[in-house]
């Protein structure tokens, strides 16, 4: 409502959900991250609904590059990803957030997606791919062009490895083209942007709605999407026209 009160029929029942936000900033803590400013909007909405949230700033951790669950088995001396991955495994909602550099996602964001991809061949308790039925979204900040490009890359990557993407699952803020203020800079207009605040709010609620719907339903039915069953010869109605 315009006075800030909640409208009649505000949904409830999200308190059992867990969400993790990955911040792909290149700035180590405690440096100010503009991306954290946008994450905070979504996080506050979730926490008001009783959702458990966590923010992981990947640059603060010694995460190896690669596409395997534990890169220490592939020549790396150290790799903190195996200690961070349980946050993903336990989460119902995963939000990938980060800045724009040269019109694209940051190296930290790309590394995160590669490490998520490392688990895409694993299976959940039903025998489906590991990320069924987790829900994914993204938040982007920058003062150059690229919000939609970065969002397309992230959301495609997440759905490709098994995440479910609700409607309008991305939001962002961008300053004027060329050098200029960042989201949290004084006078940037970022925190006051109605467009950004609306889209971030809609994204957050759509993530909550889909995550709750899937959790209440016990996830996706385990039919037509079981890799081991396909390998064993169960093809769920598929017919090869060459053998008709």
TrEMBL record:
NADPH-dependent FMN reductase-like domain span: 18-163
Tell me the InterPro entries matching this sequence.
Answer: Flavoprotein-like_sf, FMN_Rdtase-like_dom
Sorted alphabetically, which Pfam families does this protein's record hold? Answer: FMN_red
Q: Could you give a GO molecular-function term held by this entry? A: oxidoreductase activity
- Put simply, this protein is called Flavodoxin
The organism of origin for this protein: Pseudarthrobacter phenanthrenivorans
Q: What is the lineage of its organism?
A: Bacteria, Bacillati, Actinomycetota, Actinomycetes, Micrococcales
């Amino acid at each position: 409502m315009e006075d800030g009160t909640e409208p009649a029929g505000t949904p409830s029942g999200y308190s059992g959900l867990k969400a993790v936000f990955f911040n792909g900033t290149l700035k180590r803590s405690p440096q100010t991250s503009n991306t954290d400013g946008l994450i905070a909007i979504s996080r506050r909405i979730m926490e008001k609904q009783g959702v458990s949230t966590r923010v992981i700033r990947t640059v603060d951790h010694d995460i190896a590059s690669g596409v395997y669950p534990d890169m220490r088995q592939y020549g790396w001396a150290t790799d903190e990803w195996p200690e961070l991955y349980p946050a993903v495994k336990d989460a119902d909602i995963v939000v990938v957030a980060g800045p724009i550099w040269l019109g694209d996602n940051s190296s930290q964001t790309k590394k995160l997606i590669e490490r998520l991809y490392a688990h895409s061949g694993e299976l959940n308790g039903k025998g489906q791919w590991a990320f069924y039925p987790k829900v994914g979204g993204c938040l982007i900040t920058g003062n150059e062009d690229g919000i939609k490009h970065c969002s397309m890359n992230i959301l495609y990557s997440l759905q490709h490895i098994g995440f479910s993407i609700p409607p309008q699952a991305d939001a962002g803020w961008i300053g004027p083209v060329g050098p200029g203020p960042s989201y949290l800079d004084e006078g940037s207009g970022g925190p006051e942007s109605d467009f950004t605040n609306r889209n971030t709010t809609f994204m957050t609620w759509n993530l909550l709605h889909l995550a709750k719907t899937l959790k209440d339903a016990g996830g996706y039915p385990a039919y037509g999407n079981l890799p081991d069953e396909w390998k064993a010869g169960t093809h769920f109605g598929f017919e090869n026209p060459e053998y008709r």
